[in-house]
Amino acid sequence: MKDGIHPDYHTITVKMTDGTLFQAKTTWGKEGDQMALDIDPLAHPAWTGGSAKLMDTGGRVSKFKNKYAGLGF
Q1: Helix %, strand %, coil % for the chain, to 5?
Q2: What angle do CA 61, 63, 68 make, to 5 degrees?
């Protein structure tokens, strides 16, 4: 690699939502910093299969469903 143009690549500690820790190489932060995750594969509905609720602000979801009710895929 060319000197002086690449960011510092170092090891940090990543803290998962359940409190477990692991080491990762990154350009984020400084050597020895700790990154605490708010969402990870242990807590996110996309990985856990949990159900998410739609917030129907101003009837937008209802309006959309009514507009496209006739389209069947």
Answers
A1: 20, 20, 60
A2: 95
Contact 54, 61 (CB under 8 A): yes
Q: In whole angstroms, how large is the CA radius of gyration of the chain? A: 21
d(CA 53, CA 40) in angstroms, rounded, equals: 19
pLDDT tens digits for 45-73?
Answer: 777 776 656 566 667 778 888 888 888 75
Question: Could you report the per-residue pLDDT of 14-49, keeping only the tens digit for each?
Answer: 999 899 999 999 999 999 999 998 888 877 777 777
The whole-angstrom separation of Cα 61 and Cα 73 is: 19
Q: What are the counts of helices (DSSP H) followed by strands (DSSP E) for the chain?
A: 2, 3
All residues at 6 or more sequence positions from 43 whose CB lies less than 8 Å from its CB, including other chains = 17
